[in-house]
Amino acid sequence: MKLTSILAAGAIALTASSHALAQQDDQLNFIAVTHITAGDPFGNVLKRGFEDAAEELGVSLRYNSPAQYDTSQMLRMIEQAIATQPDGLAVTIPDASAFAKPIRKAIESGIPVVVLNTGEDISHELGALNYVGQSEYRAGKLAGERMREAGVEHPICINFAPGQSQLDARCQGFTDAFEGAAEQLSTTQDPTAITNAVMAHLNSNPDTDGVLSLGSLATVPLITEFQKQGAMGKIAFATFDLAPETLEAVRDGEMLFAMDQQQYLQGYLPVQILAQYNRYGVVPTTDIQTGPNFITQDNAEQVIELTKQGYR
């Protein structure tokens, strides 16, 4: 562990013992700001976790996310949240260079912060209470190892938002699992551009035998395109995160696996941590890993039912 992380952890312990505790009947107000776009199915489950926890714990929570990934818009959301001096802030950090300064400002102003989904490496250096999510590099490497076990030798990793730390880390881990034999294909977030780029690559590189998508934004349009081209099941195809179309393809044996990071918990647990911290001055002493879990043909049906209920 870095010295800065050790010092930050010590600061957290001291803060927990001296933090002014809320009374049982005090209304706690939390704000969540994430980079997860409104059109991403992942975000609906994440938001459900936030809302369920807020209702069960009797706190007020406002959830904010941009319609499209936009650093400047997310920065404004964080600044606006800080200005209201909430009792707690839950936030994702997809780009440490852009978001470290305002998040540090929030913490220094006395707002407890829990980082979720992305920002594991920087969260404690900033002084956050906890990180709730998965280790993205490790998850990418595990995905690569599983693909290799399936016989894949020349895959591509589709990065639809180069520069977002969690996606870059996933691709890096995946590539390392193949000892450099995997290739990263960078695209935009436009579904048509993604499918065009992937199909062009496959046509130009017929030895490509595996495709890893980093999220539903790319996976769902690729499922449609692969089905249209009769390619489903003919190439090893796997993804991060879940969507109904993804789970059906995994269930039917058309996709190798999907990686579930349990985003419901990524919404639920930060609210719980912030509430307990405000009321009792207690906080978990280690980060909470919510993934990755592999969804395969063996367990996809059960997850489909939970997806319909909004929990997966």
UniProtKB/TrEMBL annotation:
One GO biological process term: transmembrane transport
Assigned GO CC terms: cell envelope
Keywords: Signal
UniProt keyword Signal, yes or no: yes
Localization annotation: Cell envelope
InterPro entries per the UniProt record, alphabetical: Peripla_BP_I (IPR028082), SBP_2_dom (IPR025997)
Signal peptide per UniProt: 1-22
Residue intervals of the Periplasmic binding protein domain: 31-277
An example Gene Ontology molecular-function term: carbohydrate binding
Family of the protein in this entry: Belongs to the bacterial solute-binding protein 2 family.
Name recorded for this polypeptide: Sugar ABC transporter substrate-binding protein
UniProt organism field: Halomonas binhaiensis
Source taxonomy: Bacteria, Pseudomonadati, Pseudomonadota, Gammaproteobacteria, Oceanospirillales
